[in-house]
Fold:
Amino acid sequence: MTRFCTSQFVRGAVAGLVTLAAASTSSAETKEFNASNWLPDSTALVSHGYLEWAKLLEEASGGELKAKVFTGPVLLPPAAHLSGLRDGVAQVTYHAGTYTPADLPLDNILAHLSIGITDPFVAAFAMTDFNMTDPEMIAMWESHNVVYGGGYSTIPYHLFCTEAIATPADIEGKKIRTLGAMMSDWAESVGAVPVNVPSTEMYSGLEKGQLDCAANTLEQLKSSSLWDVAKHTSLVDLGIYYAGFLYGINQDFWQSLTPAERRTLLDTMATSIVRTQIRYDKAGEEAAAEAASHGVVMHQPDAALVKSITDFRAVARQSAIELGVETFGIADAETLVARFEATIAKWEKLLDGIDRTDQAALTAVLKRELYDQIDTENYGVN
Structure:
């Protein structure tokens, strides 16, 4: 069995987990590698995106490829899932792109548009397509020793609060856990105080009074037990989140695989993206149905609070371009946005009329229109 890691980057207690012995191998031997997703096991991005995917990969490869999955911050803390992937601590990771804006400027420009995108399946498929086929995006990932394997999208973000939030007056002065520049800008526009912390710190922040609200998906009420510490949900629609990747692959590891092994890896990732998105939708519905039994009250936002978000959606495009030019120094930010918008439009058309619970149909179109067209002889190989 061959196992992959770059041990010089591993320190302290983690060293015992990830210092792996290298050995010569034939293609028939098992290649075991580390895969890490810092979210809890109960979330769709882990349960289907990683745990079920690992089983699917081992089966599809006839046991030749085996992912050793680490969940939560066991192997790497949340923001280190990009650098840890680059350095070979893990060979496949999930990464939230807005956690490392300086490293991923193009990704963060695109993330700024998410407040105006409403279909998670379109977003997940378009992000996957754009990052795997756009030369500028590919070059950005290559600069971090990463091969892009697949994207994702959350379901819509809402607010989970310790007090009722339904009007602009309710939200003024509240400390809100936000994600990304656009959401933080919106919070400031309504007089709230944005707080940038990872989702792993939402529960403790709400429990200790360090946060008044946390922005996240309905799934998190259940998967992160937020309904224990936040008894009020504001159904204000803050858009979705798709920054970063569901599957980033260490480029050295990718290049150590045969083209056939790369194909198996990508095919299983395509299948798992669809399964994950379907499960994500269902998990949100289940959490919403159970919320009342945990004492959670759902609040519909008033017209003024809704308008505050609608106004931001109207300027999202220009705001993204300004972010690119003024903050990240990307002179062609408008061209980047236009290319991404074209990809969104492409997938809106391709997914038109397809039942979002039809796994077979969704997988077929994702593979036919994207994954089957990826040349594993050359993709990610320089």
User: Anything to note?
Assistant: The longest helix spans residues 259-291. The chain is about 45% helix and 15% strand. The mean pLDDT is 92. Residues 137 and 164 are 41 Å apart (CA to CA).
